[in-house]
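Predict the assembly for these three chains.
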Amino acid sequence: MKRLELWLYIAQRGSALVLAPLVLLHLGVILYAVSGGLSAAEILGRTRSTMLWPAAYGLFVVAAAIHAAIGLRVVVREWTHWRNRTLDFAALGFGLVLLLLGLRAVQAIA
Amino acid sequence: MRNHASYRAFLVHRLSGLGLALFLPIHLIVLGLAVEASALDGFLRWSELPLVKAAETILVVLLALHMFGGLRLLAIELLPWSDRQKNWIGWAAAASLAVGAGFVIRTFA
Amino acid sequence: MTNASLGTLKVEIWRGAEEGDFETFEVPSQPSQTVLDLVTYVQRKLDPSLAYRFACRVGVCGSCAMTVNGTPRWTCRTHVQKVASSGRVRIEPLRNLPILKDLATDMAPFFDKGQEALGRFVPSDARASEVATIPPDDPKRKEANAAIECIGCGVCYSACDVVSWQPDYLGPAALNRAWTLVNDVRDGDRQGHLKAVAEDAGCHACHGHQNCVEHCPVGLNPTRSIAGLKRLVVMAALKGEL
């Protein structure tokens, strides 16, 4: 792909813009929910109360899968000798695994 | 040569990112257990162990560091240059530690 | 001028090319001595076969940059007193460039990348037309002004870890130069400059370590210039203009 690195950079920063408010929300939920211990009933009671939770976490999962896969690819390229096409496919695979695991988790709490 | 704040901020961002990327699959697999509430509860009981609590605190701090540090990078790259950008490193670190402290207080309170 | 009471310095100098070793010389200390003075003393008095590069000796030409105690510096304006901890100075060639001999590196990759980044002025007007008037307080003029005093010494390129991790990366100096040109209203190929720095080894590879900012001997801020390029390149890419 022409200018692959530039487009990956744009996807990286774009996903970061989406992630920033979601991570803030997530940290808020963690700090709120962790008090007095966690239970499945409490977590699911909250996430199943409205479709907004699964929707927000669905978006979170998509953005995180993109962001983590691109970030990991850069780290491997710069800190190891692995930098050919196979790395691109491995990073893509990592992103897809995250996406599938994430969507499965969102489905479980929906 | 690398003994200055921006380079340290880079290292923190990269290492926290690496940590989060490796943790994320595990986190998502565990959440997938929620289909069966009892399985999730089993895991959550395990997560009450002090050592696991300590690891969780570290993860929360890593997430906060990566997010606040990332906001600083986005500000540098998307907004016009500000010579105050060096101070943002301190603010990001302070905010992350505050989140970590908040987590510890809420967990044990 | 010789002041024997100041004692001597142990000066370790890289000898050889990519393969080589350090050779230690004893050099008498002098008041206000620069690192370049040390090297010159060794070459003139102790070993005439020592290869190094310099020209102006006053911080204008940018040819005498070397690695001094692990840090890239312009040696003609670096006082020994500032860098010599415990009377030892270790002098190596610049990092991230092929070593020709001793302290002299092959600067070709550095200057080639300047061209690759289209770091040269592209005329937009005929020679006979009037000189363009640019008000000094024009925002673009100010941006260009802040980045324009580069002496091409290669210190930032040598300090940059992204260059050592991604050897194709254009580097701080080339990108900084491109930034001055996209802000030059007289330049005739703004699009060409943006295209050049949007290639795979272009501006977006910068991680903002700011080693370049920390080490630039003339106090430039390549990170700021590169951030400016990133914004322009992303906007152009999203608009489909690249």
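The longest strand of chain C covers residues 8-16. Chain C has a mean pLDDT of 94.
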